[in-house]
Design brief:
Blueprint lengths: L2 H6 L9 H10 L1 E5 L4 E3 L7 E7 L2 E5 L7 E6 L4 E2 L1 H6 L6 E4 L3 E7 H9 L2 H14 L28 E8 L2 E8 L7 E6 L5 E8 L2 E8 L3 H13 L14 E6 L10 E2 L2 H9 L8 H15 L4 E5 L9 H4 L5 H4 L11 H15 L7 E7 L3 E7 L2 E5 L20 H9 L5 H10 L2 H6 L5 H9 L3 H25 L4 E5 L7 H8 L11 H6 L7 E3 L8 E5 L3 H24 L4 E6 L2 E3 L2 H8 L7 E4 L6 E10 L4 E9 L6 E3 L2 H7 L5 E2 L10 E5 L2 E5 L3 E4 L2 E4 L1 H7 L6 E6 L5 E10 L6 E5 H7 L6 E9 L4
Parallel strand pairs: 9-14, 14-16, 17-20, 20-22, 23-36, 24-27, 28-32, 29-32, 33-35
Antiparallel strand pairs: 1-8, 2-7, 3-6, 3-8, 4-5, 4-7, 9-10, 10-11, 11-12, 12-13, 15-16, 17-18, 18-19, 21-22, 23-37, 24-28, 25-26, 26-27, 26-30, 30-31, 33-36, 34-35, 34-37
Helix pairs in contact: 5-22, 6-8, 11-19, 15-16, 16-17
Length: about 775
């Protein structure tokens, strides 16, 4: 097949320069489909965009149902996969070869930026989508045979080799991934650094091998790791220059880093600055980074921060109750840690349950040498037991966890402990080690407890008491839990510990199955259910897989760099709108509030087509107070919903979560009063997440997809950046961004304010 000739003659690629067309040909991949092959699977996020060269493809919705709907045919010269590429949504139908066919396909992530900068391509695709769009969506459980077009893992759209590195005070862990498998090709663990003899265990394709490293530093350990990975007989790469990226776990990113960051001098300086609040981690993370810089030359390096996931916690969970003069320092706040582990385990749990991550309430319990619990509400962190530093929260292997600040002051003032000495004691001599007097290793202490050692028994009891207390608190904070997730070396290998922590929680819907709990044996990334069949909350054990999560985040960071460059080159203005409090009503509630047979009355059009403000107004009545003359918005909806601002929560006496419109599970209720009666909603009150409406053409031009989370820059005298902005894409949408009244007032936005996309914070996932 002459790819250049086939593509150059296609109207989608008309007008491209010879250089651009050569790049398109380079990205193209010819494929052959047999009759019956499924080219695109209904209900899945398609990875490919294709042009049919010969043969015919049929588009079918509900193909495995009793009444499949045949939507149409794709003939030679036509495209397929454009709707998923333009919106980022799951595809609404199967695309199936009805006879032998040939096509040219592209990875969407690679071709979309090229098409986004070409006006003729944009017009062609937008018209094509408008002619084909169907509203229904679905996800079929059946998995028919399919011609796989893309076989990359880790979220990559091209072949990559990724080295994930985690440096701690006396150890270094590493894993080498490539995008042909979710499992690492090689792993290594170097322990007892800075002692007489460190131990290096390397496991490649030929199995594990051990060796000694006399008096090794982190630089020596990193050198040994590279030598093992490149060894002629047991290595998996020929030279460090083959690496696509080196990804480093970094403990503390402060208030700045809410996602992975490509490492620069500026990033290293910030990691160094934060060493005071993470003294047992950040300095050693930095040593690993500097060692890799010396060994891997110009290979890009990415920092993946343990604090990044929790930077989206609600303000109330972040705030320290300090005097005003101290509270103004942005560094003095609660951060939360183990975000890499918590997010990775929670996403693995959601995949295991077959449910979207952003639709679940999860309490994740990470328990290893250090330990924390995290409450996750519909994909957003709600709280974490760790705060300003990794010292707060649960009792750990050698860390104290929660202490009364007065006790710390007493130790300084009355016991004469110097700050550095006290810090060492709280980090290295407390926790299980301090309470048991035996060891900080959980399995060793459990063994001693089984033999009746009273100090070991008390240490285990104290640790489980704190974990159960925080688990109770977090389930209550979330208003219930769909899943309890245990992960980390201790939590996944100690069934007795899990049983003690979950003991007595049946009233919360948390009940273990004794046999499942005892038999659970999971490897990295594997999931086992250990709860009883009829429990409301699913209790899961997830094998610790932090290096895999680190690698995935680094791949996304590298992939997003050209997208960010494209975003920042365009200057498309996004109008900013202030979303005041309002109500959406069902037809039944309209009649209950305004009288039998009443329908909503148009008052004024809103920015989005088909949506309007109504003449009807209601009063919101909460446990504490009332808000009158709240506008109803039309048209009517399948479920009633109330959107308020943060300051109005206090006035009403409710605590509304930040959610997208329509995501109402687990939200508080309220009473609505109208001229003809009242309605009590048992749920439905939210604070709306910042969001941008846009059409598919806007999305392609701006290089984003539906449900991406982005940062938006607002220029002006008080230039600022809004993070955590959700993208929503639909052919029915007109470009605009909504922020709530409180945020608009705080930012002093005027009516003509506009924003510009700055970067992608988080790519949408299925």
């Amino acid at each position: 097949m002459d790819l250049a000739a086939q593509l150059e003659s296609h109207p989608l690629f008309e007008g491209f320069s010879p250089e651009a067309l050569a790049r398109i040909v380079e990205l193209a991949r010819p494929v052959t489909y047999a009759a019956g092959d499924v080219c695109i699977q209904e209900g899945e996020a398609s990875e490919v965009f294709g042009v049919l060269i010969s043969g015919r493809l049929e588009v079918v919705r509900g193909r495995r149902s009793d009444q499949p709907e045949r939507i149409g045919m794709i003939e030679p010269g036509e495209c397929f996969g454009e709707m998923s590429m333009l919106t980022g949504n799951s595809t609404v139908a199967d695309v199936v070869a009805t006879e032998p066919a040939q096509a040219v396909i592209f990875v969407q992530e690679q071709i979309a930026p090229l098409l986004a900068t070409h006006r003729q391509s944009l017009r062609f695709l937008t018209k094509l989508m408008a002619s084909r769009l169907a509203p229904a969506r679905g996800r079929s459980a059946a998995r028919p045979r399919r011609a796989e077009a893309v076989a990359y893992t880790l979220g990559a759209s091209a072949p990559m080799k990724v080295l994930a590195v985690s440096c701690r005070p006396a150890e270094l862990r590493y894993s080498l991934f490539d995008t042909t498998s979710e499992s690492p090709r090689a792993t290594g663990y170097i322990s007892k650094l800075y002692r007489d003899q460190a131990v290096h265990v390397y496991e490649g394709p030929d199995g594990p091998r051990g060796s000694a490293l006399p008096q090794a530093t982190h630089q020596d350990a990193m050198t040994a790791a590279i030598e093992a990975l490149t060894a002629p007989d047991t290595g998996v790469i020929g030279d460090p220059s083959e690496l696509s990226v080196v990804a480093h776990r970094v403990c503390h990113g402060g208030p700045r880093f809410n996602g992975p960051a490509e490492i620069s001098d500026d990033v290293k300086q910030e990691i160094r600055r934060l060493a005071d609040v993470a003294p047992m981690d950040n300095p050693y993370n930095l040593r690993g980074i500097e060692a890799c810089e010396a060994l891997a030359g110009t290979v890009p390096q990415v920092a993946v921060f343990d604090t990044a996931f929790h930077l989206r916690m609600p303000a109330a969970a972040q705030r320290c109750a300090l005097p005003a003069d101290l509270g103004r320092d942005p560094l003095l706040r609660r951060y939360g840690f183990h975000g890499i582990s918590h997010e990775g385990a929670a996403r693995a749990a959601a995949e295991f349950l077959g449910v979207r991550f952003d639709s679940l309430r999860i309490v994740s319990c990470h328990m290893g040498n250090s330990a924390s619990l995290s409450a996750i509400d519909h994909g957003r962190p709600a709280d974490n037991t760790m705060g300003f530093s990794p010292l707060e929260g649960l009792a750990m292997a050698t860390r104290s966890g929660d202490l009364d600040p007065a006790l710390v002051l007493h130790l300084v003032r009355r016991k004469g402990l110097e700050p550095d000495e006290l810090l060492r004691k709280l980090y290295d001599e407390s926790g299980l080690l301090g309470m048991s007097g035996i060891s900080g290793d959980m399995l060793s202490v459990l063994g001693a407890a089984e033999k009746g050692n009273p100090a070991a028994l008390m240490a285990i009891e104290a640790l489980c008491h704190r974990a159960r207390k925080h688990l109770n608190a977090f389930v209550g904070l979330l208003g219930g839990a769909d899943a309890i997730v245990f992960t980390g070396g201790v939590a996944q290998n100690a069934p007795g510990l899990r049983a003690r922590i979950c003991q007595g929680l049946a009233w919360m819907g948390i009940v273990l199955d004794e046999d499942r709990n005892a038999d659970a044996d999971v490897g990295p990334g594997q999931v086992a259910r250990v709860s009883a069949d009829d429990t409301r909350a699913k209790v899961l054990v997830v094998g610790s897989n932090e290096e895999h999560t680190i690698a995935c985040q680094a791949v996304r960071a590298i992939a997003q760099k050209p997208v960010t460059d494209l975003i920042r080159r365009q200057h498309k203005a996004i109008p900013l709108g202030v979303s005041a409090h309002h109500v959406h009503l069902t037809p039944e509630h309209v009649e209950a509030l305004f009288g039998p047979g009443h329908t909503l009355t148009w008052y004024a059009d809103l920015t989005q087509p088909g949506q309007f403000a109504c003449k009807e107004q209601v009063t919101l009545v909460g446990p504490k107070g009332r808000i009158e003359r709240v506008r109803v918005l039309g048209p009517e909806r399948p479920e009633s919903q109330v959107e308020i601002a943060r300051t109005e929560e206090f006035k009403l006496g409710v605590d509304a979560p930040i959610r997208m419109s329509g995501d109402l599970d687990g939200t508080p209720g309220i009473t609505l009063e109208g001229p003809a009666g009242s309605v009590h909603l048992d749920h439905g009150v939210i604070c709306a997440m910042r969001h941008i409406h846009m059409s598919p053409q806007d999305a392609l031009e701006l290089a984003v997809r539906d449900r991406d989370v982005v940062r938006v820059r607002v220029p002006g005298e008080r230039s600022l950046i809004f993070g955590d902005v959700m993208v929503r894409v639909s052919p029915d949408f007109r470009l605009d961004m909504h922020v709530d009244t409180d945020e608009a007032n705080a930012a002093e936005l005027d009516r003509d304010a506009v924003g510009h996309l700055d970067s992608i914070q988080e790519r949408a996932s299925a």
